[in-house]
Amino acid sequence: MTGPLWDALPDGWRSGQLKNAATVTLGKMLQSKDSGSDVRAPYMRAANVQPDGVLALDDMNEMWFDAAELGKLSIRAGDVVVVEGGQGGFGRAAYVSEDLPGWGFQNSINRLRPTEDFDGRFIAFYLIALRASGFIRAYSNVVSMPHLTAEKLARIPMPLPTLEEQRAISDYLDRETARIDTLIEEQQRLMEMLRERRQAVIESAVGRGLDPAAPMRSSGLFWTAEVPQHWTVANIRKFATMKTGHTPSRSKPEYWVDCTIPWFTLADVWQLRDGRQTYLGETSNLISKAGLANSSAELLPAGTVVLSRTASVGFSGIMPVEMATSQDFWNWIPGDRLTAEYLVWTFRAMRSEFQSLMIGSTHKTIYQPTAAAFRLPIPPVAEQQRIATYLDDQTKKIDTLVTESERLIDLSRERRAALIMAAVTGQINVREVA
């Protein structure tokens, strides 16, 4: 019998459904004490089930249960937990390696409790392979968002090798995936070190210049203690004109026809998040001349530097052509004593200052009086140009290393998924390759 991941199974393997290997139980809805429940206990929820079959239990929430109900919704070593719904995590599965006394689980989680002839690790690995293959998404109920209900989960086709074979496969995958995960973690640590190095290079060049022998003086700035003596430290408005953006009225349809003007909004901030892109690319949205004329938005010249100020705070780039922006940006038109490229690198050096300045509990914001009060270190224009050229070169070298690490991580994850799929469907003999 064929299945979602196999055309044929090894001799001695049966095929069936997940319900042949485990009982499936959906958790309970969140309830307050007013519901009559009498026990407050930690509970498993979708956020605890991470990709690649990892459980993250440090982030613990509590809810109310009846005592008898909590007993039925217990979680113990050998169980498998599967995310029932949600756009990002539905279908994620994780093996529970140790008892969780006193824990229950919410209705975003299905608990699989293996029968005596099945190893929970094998079930978890099989579900991980199903999700990686895209089968779970295609199989799940979709209303407003995907759902992998208990009933559908129980009916998923599944290979049924012997318990001895399941344990051999699970032991093999435990070893091999641990090795791959270690390699991934090493690359992630390397990437973090490279990003820290990148930021240090930017802060050093913009804050201290490129001449290590230059006499220094106190800067009075938050993010760099000293600057070269011959530099100026002053308010940004002495060197650049401050502008903001706007959104034409959505209630005026005539403002949203014949739209031809590039309009940079928060939908485009992704271009600037990793700091690798200096010049803005194509915008997701355009506005019209009528919308521009009847709003506070302005058509800003090429060379204007944008700085995101709401929600996604502190990301910067340069307009390569005339553009307008939404009100989510402070825009700076550099004067004769400031280059756009140097200003962008300065904003990127100020990352820690932006983080300290963000105000607001829901949407982080840098307000106008704060932005207008920015103080910058300003070297002579020729030195600004040398610094910008140096940083272009140095950060590209670091970014190349980061890209290589990202590629290795992607390849490792692909290998991990392929290895799991091959093992749980009997495509490889784990005893021969162990």
Architecture overview:
The mean pLDDT is 92. The protein has 434 residues and is α+β, with helices and mostly antiparallel strands. The chain starts with 13 loop residues before the first strand and ends with a helix. The chain is built from eleven helices and 24 strands. It has helices spanning 67-72, 120-133, 135-139, 150-154, 163-208, 289-293, 340-349, 351-357, 368-372, 381-424, 430-433; strands at residues 14-17, 22-26, 39-44, 49-50, 54-55, 61-65, 80-83, 93-95, 104-105, 109-114, 141-142, 146-147, 157-160, 216-218, 226-228, 232-235, 240-244, 261-264, 285-287, 305-308, 316-318, 324-325, 329-334, 375-378. The protein has a four-stranded antiparallel sheet. Strands 17-23-20-21 form a four-stranded antiparallel sheet. Among the domains are: 14-160, Alpha-Beta Complex (Adenine-n6-DNA-methyltransferase TaqI, Chain A, domain 2), CATH 3.90.220; 232-378, Adenine-n6-DNA-methyltransferase TaqI, Chain A, domain 2, CATH 3.90.220.20. It is elongated, with a radius of gyration of 28 Å.
Features:
alpha+beta; 434 residues; 4-stranded antiparallel sheet; Adenine-n6-DNA-methyltransferase TaqI, Chain A, domain 2; single chain
Write the layout of secondary structure elements.
Elements: E1 14-17, E2 22-26, E3 39-44, E4 49-50, E5 54-55, E6 61-65, H1 67-72, E7 80-83, E8 93-95, E9 104-105, E10 109-114, H2 120-133, H3 135-139, E11 141-142, E12 146-147, H4 150-154, E13 157-160, H5 163-208, E14 216-218, E15 226-228, E16 232-235, E17 240-244, E18 261-264, E19 285-287, H6 289-293, E20 305-308, E21 316-318, E22 324-325, E23 329-334, H7 340-349, H8 351-357, H9 368-372, E24 375-378, H10 381-424, H11 430-433
Parallel strand pairs: 3-9, 18-22
Antiparallel strand pairs: 1-13, 2-10, 3-6, 4-5, 7-8, 7-10, 11-12, 14-15, 16-24, 17-23, 18-19, 20-21, 20-23
Helix pairs in contact: 2-10, 5-7, 5-10
